[in-house]
Amino acid sequence: MNFEDLPIAPVVILARPQMGENIGAAARAMMNCGLTELRLVNPRDGWPNPAALPMAAGGGEIIKNAQVLPSVAAAAHDVTLLLAASARRRDLSIKSTDPRGAASLMLAHDRQQRLGDDSQTVSAINAKQGRVAMMFGPEASGLDNDEVVLADLLVTAPLNPAYPSLNLAQAVLLFAWEWRMAAQLDIGQVDALVSPVISNDHSKLASISEREIFFDRLEAALDDGGFFTAPEMATSVKRNLRAFFTRGAPTGQEINTLHGVIQALSRRRD
Amino acid sequence: MNFEDLPIAPVVILARPQMGENIGAAARAMMNCGLTELRLVNPRDGWPNPAALPMAAGGGEIIKNAQVLPSVAAAAHDVTLLLAASARRRDLSIKSTDPRGAASLMLAHDRQQRLGDDSQTVSAINAKQGRVAMMFGPEASGLDNDEVVLADLLVTAPLNPAYPSLNLAQAVLLFAWEWRMAAQLDIGQVDALVSPVISNDHSKLASISEREIFFDRLEAALDDGGFFTAPEMATSVKRNLRAFFTRGAPTGQEINTLHGVIQALSRRRD
Q1: What is the CATH number of domain B11-186?
Q2: What is the spatial distance between Cα B103 and Cα B107, in angstroms, rounded to a whole number?
Q3: Does A124 reach chain B within 8 Å, measured CB to CB?
Q4: Chain B contacts of A33, Cβ < 8 Å?
Q5: Is A151 on the interface with B (CB under 8 A)?
Q6: Average of pLDDT values for A113-120?
Q7: With 60 as the cut, is the pLDDT of residue A120 above it?
Q8: Buried-most residue among A68, A175, A187, B193 (CB within 10 A)?
Q9: Rounded to a whole number, what is the distance in angstroms from the first to the last CA of chain B?
């Protein structure tokens, strides 16, 4: 169920989750981010829970394949890097970071384990390597300290101090998203500094000479219509118009449309 | 309602939202990230919607203060940078980026507008400046193309291509979180490369000489107990034990506890 060229996705462990709806919504968020393996420790209302599947939407398979285990230790039996999500710092001597830092550590852990591993398939790699897991506590109280001390890292998102408590599925999304972004950045599937680009096919952009023909026609038509009432301003007004139309990076098709606009407006004037 | 030293938070516009629960959950996510201003365009089930408030949790004030407007244009009347969230690319000539790129553009927009603005209060700044807004479409279909073309930017999260469709409130969280992280990075409230740190007070860490006394005692006790059966290995075994105990960066208190451990174990042997 690994859909892409990304590293092996982390396991999600929900410790003592309370509401089936949240388990379902967590599965949807996992699916959105390409995570597939869900482990439930003592879900309050038993399992399967009929409230989970409708909320899972496209993540239904994750719900169907979810494992139920009697303790965090059992759920993390094959895990070699365990992250504990928490809305609050704890009075425990445990290393802590934020979800972005956690994502980068998860990837580093994965990379290190793969070094020298010549396994060909994801399942073969999974079988040999320790897994990475993110663990989340119950909705009402979060993880208890006995669960947190099992983890290598406490991960706390720097949220609004007036109300930092995320819904369970929202917390799963936030951690899964940060893992996914880090993984995609790592393999160059996403750019670190994304400049907005126009989704146009670049080959369809108007050339400078197509723009120039348009500008000349526009200026002639405006001149003809008595637009440049103050001749001393004409040069700078023309320059500003050119800058405006250039800023939009028009396609050849758009330049054609703009020619039509000039024609139609001129006709109206006549 | 701006709780922190962050830039003015973006407005959230929900166009034709369907379920009150999602509007509530979106408000909670906004509150988690320090966004407070919610505008609803033609909510399907009218407004107020009794399903919204319970899901809003700590974001109840956002629900109570939400404005209802008849069109996207009306909801964005004071907005000078409008982002349209979409799970899919559109066949439209519009600039597009991902949520992280969008966050950095929102902050740049805000910075540019503040330049030379000597207003002292957030409300005075809000009154004079154009706002930034993130806009989200209805659950079933997303924004329609007539809504998207009103926006400066189309923002698409690079999610699992097998199922990229986020729940509405999850989409709001993802965008709001990216804005918050970018804003906090910008003012140095969060580090760009977060190394995990131990939450211990650093002044309480054991000194090198405290560690040394412990190591000496441990090694003597082990020697006494016949631990070093192969004398030629003793040096490297001792070195590895020192490395292990050092890696945990023990506090003075922990070193005291470890002294107690040696004592107790030795007593048992006697």
Answers
A1: 3.40.1280.10
A2: 6
A3: no
A4: 159-160
A5: no
A6: 65
A7: no
A8: A175
A9: 66
Cα B254 to Cα B250: distance, rounded to the nearest angstrom: 6
Instruction: With cut-offs at 50, 70 and 90, classify the pLDDT of residue A132.
Output: very high
- Does B105 sit within 8 Å of A167, measured CB to CB? no
- Mean pLDDT, chain A, whole residue set: 88
Answer whether B89 touches A (CB < 8 Å): yes
Taking the C-alpha atoms of residue B13 and residue B66, their distance in angstroms, rounded to an integer, is 10
Nearest to B87, CA basis, from B165, B200, B161, B171? B165
Interface predicted TM-score of the whole assembly (ipTM), two decimals: 0.84
Q: A33 vs B158: CB contact, 8 Å cut-off? A: no
pLDDT at A248: 81
What does the pLDDT read at residue A199? 59
Where along chain A do its domains lie?
Answer: 11-186, 202-269
Q: Is the peptide bond before A158 cis (omega within 30 degrees of 0)?
A: no
The residue ranking higher by pLDDT, A30 or A253, is A30
Question: Is A157 in the B-facing interface, judged by CB distances under 8 Å?
Answer: yes
> With an 8 Å Cβ cutoff, are A97 and B197 in contact?
yes
Most B CBs within 10 A among A107, A109, A177, A201, hence the mutation to make, goes to A177
Parts of chain B with a pLDDT under 70: 1-4, 116-129, 193-195, 197-203, 268-270
Fold of B202-269: Helicase, Ruva Protein; domain 3 (1.10.8)
CA A63 to CA A189: how far, in whole Å?
A: 28
In a mutational test of the B interface, the residue from A1, A2, A159, A160 whose CB has the highest number of chain B CBs within 10 Å is A160
Residues of A in contact with B32 (CB under 8 A): 159-160, 163-166, 170
Chain A contacts in chain B segment 204-243 (CB below 8 A): none
Would the CB atoms of A25 and B180 count as touching at under 8 Å? no
Residue A10 has pLDDT above 90, yes or no: yes
Say if residues B142 and A145 touch (Cβ distance below 8 Å).
no
The residue of chain A nearest to residue B172, with distances taken between CA atoms, is A170
Residue A1 in this model has a pLDDT that exceeds 70? no
Residue A170 to residue B32, Cβ atoms within 8 A: yes
User: Does residue A123 have a pLDDT over 90?
Assistant: no
Phi-psi label, residue A116: left if phi above 0, alpha if psi -120 to 50, beta otherwise:
left
CA distances in angstroms from A172 to A3, A57, A79, A186, A207, listed in the order given: 19, 16, 18, 21, 47
Tell me which DSSP letter residue B200 carries: S
